[in-house]
Amino acid sequence: MTEIQQEALNKAVETINGDMAALWITIAAVLVFFMQAGFTLVEIGFTRSKNAGNIIMKNIMDLCIGSIMFWAVGYGIMYGSDLVMGGFFRSSPADQGYFFFSASDWYNLFFQTVFCATAATIVSGAVAGRTKFSTYLILSAVITTLIYPISGSWYWPFDDDAWLNTAGFIDFAGSSVVHAVGGSAALVAAIMVGPRIGKYVDGKAIAIPGHNIPFGAIGVMILWLGWFGFNGGSQLAWGGDDTIAAGSVIINTNLAAAIGAVSALLLTWLKYGKPDVSMTLNGALAGLVGITAGCGAVSAWGALAIGLICGSLVVLSIEFIDKKLHVDDPVGAISVHGVCGFAGTVLVGLFALDGGLLYGGGAHLLWVQTYGSLAYIAWAAFGTFVVLIILKKTVGLRVSKEIEMDGLDIHEHGSEAYPDFRLNSH
Fold first, then answer.
1. What is the rounded CA–CA span in Å between residue 395 and residue 139?
2. What pTM does this model have?
């Protein structure tokens, strides 16, 4: 084979690998897109039937608003080439503006868009059943336009201008960038909106069961499936070594989810005398959130350890936040995404094959993982607080007592999800 022929062959292989990578990222993005259905079902199932339509509307609008605002502004802030405020965020070049027009990169925009919508959706479940729809829409718009893109710009462009990337921070698919950001925003929102009527009586937390646990279970299974795209797609390539790496990421993701569910099941069995269904489902999600940071950096044994820790942690966290802090989170979103997003990020500092404390890397990575995740949490909490303070003084945060008691569906949307049954109406 001549040198010219070899060069042509190499170019052809490079083109094929590039096309395969684009196809893999697009398929992964479709899986992540489908996760929106999973979030919707989990939130509907774990809450009361009179608010099911409102939850559907919030999740749909997270996707719709996120798709438009991230295309128009957010992507430029997150991946732009020009630094603003010393690298606090980015902007697109002046000749392009913020609107995204790079035809050669459409599939990456789609992939990043569905991640952005996921970050916003996490807040929905934590404030379910008492928040004004208009208020939620504004908060969702700010998260997808500013809060999430700014935090994402600190790491994911993977260049020397991203300060956490330069520091050596590891968050493969977003335990902190997506989940801790969403969980932190959810915590602030749940505190500021306040608990549902009847949730806390004489200082005691009263259980308000969800109306459709099968919906919740189906939602978790959809999320589990979508997570293979969430984490596997974050390899951002396919072919050769990338195929092996993506396969490892998917196995690590599955193992962490499985052991997370088993861990939550066993802990609730010991604590309550019976294995709890909703906690077991949240245990699987906790394992998924926890492994998202390190799925490309740890071994299968490390994935099992992270999933085991997060599956147990989510049970303890949900109880603590509900019974001790008296923060009303109907679906456990703060614990699943916020607490386990932070924990999963930090645990990379222990279990990473390259640089982890347990593999002879010392404490440096553990420190970087800790302050990096705390930076995301602090930024999301601050941004959400500022937005909600403004909204509280203008449009208000929560519906009236009458609307909450009757259900948000009929008052906010003029219809009911279950008009013929009125299941669990109060």
1. 12
2. 0.94
